[in-house]
Specification:
This protein is of the alpha+beta class. The protein has five helices and nine strands, in the order E-E-H-H-H-H-E-E-E-E-E-E-E-H. Strands 6-5-9 form a three-stranded mixed β-sheet, with no helix packed on it. Strands 1-2 form a two-stranded antiparallel sheet. A hairpin with a 2-residue loop joins strand 1 and strand 2.
């Protein structure tokens, strides 16, 4: 059987899906099950709202703020509140399921990627970039410095990103 755009299809019940859509549905289901088990493994009861928030973090590697997560999900989950998003993201950070990145007292964002990496904050456009380099893998999770127990290491750089630099260079040429 072929879909209107010529791709192979399969039927489930009364619906017909192209194979690419089926793969997308299965991948989404697998990811939701991974998130479900990840929450359970970390002592978090996987509610629909918590699953949606974690899925949002994992599928939006843009370092969203509480408000951006809320705006991204509120149409889908009518009962969602900003307070729930805030409390859930804080809990994820406390359980090491997400990183809370404090750029300054007015800009706190979250990262669903918990593997060792650094961040770069652009002072001009406000974008936060992930930096995976050779030294990122060597960042210690826990250590002692001068008798102080370090539980978390976050490194981020501030400056002007290459996109903004290129835009400035292009404007200077005109």
């Amino acid at each position: 059987e072929k879909h209107a755009h010529g791709r192979p299809t399969a039927s489930f019940g009364r619906r017909t899906y192209c194979q690419n859509h089926i793969k997308e549905l299965l991948n989404h289901h697998d990811m939701e099950m991974d998130v479900y088990h990840k929450l359970l493994e970390n002592g978090i009861r996987p509610s629909a709202q918590r699953l949606a928030i974690m899925n949002f973090l994992l599928t939006h590697p843009t370092h969203p703020t509480v408000d951006e997560v809320y705006q991204g999900l509120c149409n889908e989950i009518k009962t969602l509140s900003r307070t729930t998003v805030y409390n859930t993201l804080r809990m994820f950070a406390e359980k090491n399921l997400a990183q809370m990145i404090t750029i300054n007292e007015h800009h706190v964002c979250y990262d669903g990627c918990i593997s060792p990496h650094k961040h770069f904050y652009c002072n001009r456009c406000g974008h936060v970039f992930d930096i995976f380099d050779d030294t990122s893998a060597k960042l210690p999770k826990e250590m002692n410095i001068d008798g102080h127990q370090v539980l978390e290491t976050q490194v981020y750089y501030r400056g002007i990103c290459k996109n903004c630099l290129n835009n400035t260079a292009g404007q200077n040429r005109n």
